[in-house]
Amino acid sequence: MNLKNTFKYHLLLAFIIIAMHILDEYNKMGSKIFFNELALGISYLTTFNIAFFGTYVFNYKVICPNTLAKKKILLFIIGLFSLSFVFAGIRFLMEEIIMYSITGFHNYGDRTRTFWYYIFDNAFYALKAGLFSAFMYFLFNYLRSMSKIHQLQIERQKAELDILKTQLEPHFLFNTLNIFYSELAESKPETAKGIYKLSELLRYLTYETKEDFMPLTQEIKFIKDYMYFYEKRFENNFHLDFTIKGAVTTQKMPSLILIHFVENIFKHGIINDMDHPAKITIDITSDFLEITTENKISIGQNYSGSGIGKENLKKRLQLLFEDAYELKHDEAHEIYTAYLKIPLKN
Questions:
Q1: CATH topology of domain 212-343
Q2: Domain ranges (residues) in the chain
Q3: Cα separations in angstroms, 112 against 40, 41, 115, 116, 121
Q4: CA distance 199 to 191
Q5: Rounded to whole angstroms, what are the CA distances from 16 to 6, 11, 132?
Q6: What does the alpha-carbon distance between residue 52 and residue 181 come to, in Å, rounded to a whole number?
Q7: Using CA atoms, how far apart are residues 24 and 316, in angstroms rounded to an integer?
Q8: Are 1 and 144 in contact (CB under 8 A)?
Q9: Taking a C-beta distance cutoff of 8 angstroms, is the pair 342, 318 a contact?
Q10: Average pLDDT per run of 10 along the chain, which is 346 residues long?
């Protein structure tokens, strides 16, 4: 099923519902009456279905995304009952105002054309339209989720394969680093510390990032360890303002997202200019994480190109969050800024 265009499936359902409605009226009225009143019947069938599918669309586009998508079941139930007013309002406009001005006939009699009776009499059809649209909303969301999970699995397998293609035997590598660390721990503690952090970086990349979401504490530790090596390389010429705002507790975030922004600064930016230090700010709340980076652009670097890293990041964010994230890049006056806001899992 192609979920990029769901309109045709709604159209198919509409065709089935209308056909069943016509068949039901034919069985109730009999062929003689049905065909004698065909013109008027088609008119009222049209107005009824405008009300029915108007209610269907309103529930699918407005109520479901704002209640079911946010797991607000009570609000959804209230919204479902409110559809009686939507359905009755559309039908009254079509039949008792527009159709009446054309034909001079009321579909409802004087006694039954009262407000509460009209609402009550149309409540069943409104509920029916609401349930049909809610079912379709659930169905398409479920299929999208299954498609997204499948795509994420494919992307993860591709990433794991790429890692395997470039790996030395990891156990051999880690054991060798551990030997160096042990030998240098007492005589050269700073060198041993660097070896240990390198081992931690490689171990995290190799083993611990296979899940889509990782603890925020580990992701922040990873980028701190990554920055440590650049700090050692540039020593007194390392000028980077790194700030974390908010509490890091049990939140989880997609693995290896932050490193994209940090790595771009070191690859393409200037971090040895005291007058224009690079900046990384991570703002954390219980529900969201925001990262903002700013750096002076290194001569010859061009951020505006559609690099593979940026495209992969957008693709992954779209798969994980659909439209529930915000990503911005800007390049002006030799300064490059990047911004990302994503939901956190608790």
A1: Heat Shock Protein 90 (3.30.565)
A2: 7-146, 212-343
A3: 20, 20, 9, 9, 9
A4: 12
A5: 16, 9, 12
A6: 73
A7: 49
A8: no
A9: no
A10: 66 78 69 59 78 89 87 87 88 83 76 80 87 88 80 71 53 62 74 77 70 87 87 85 92 89 88 90 93 86 53 85 90 90 92
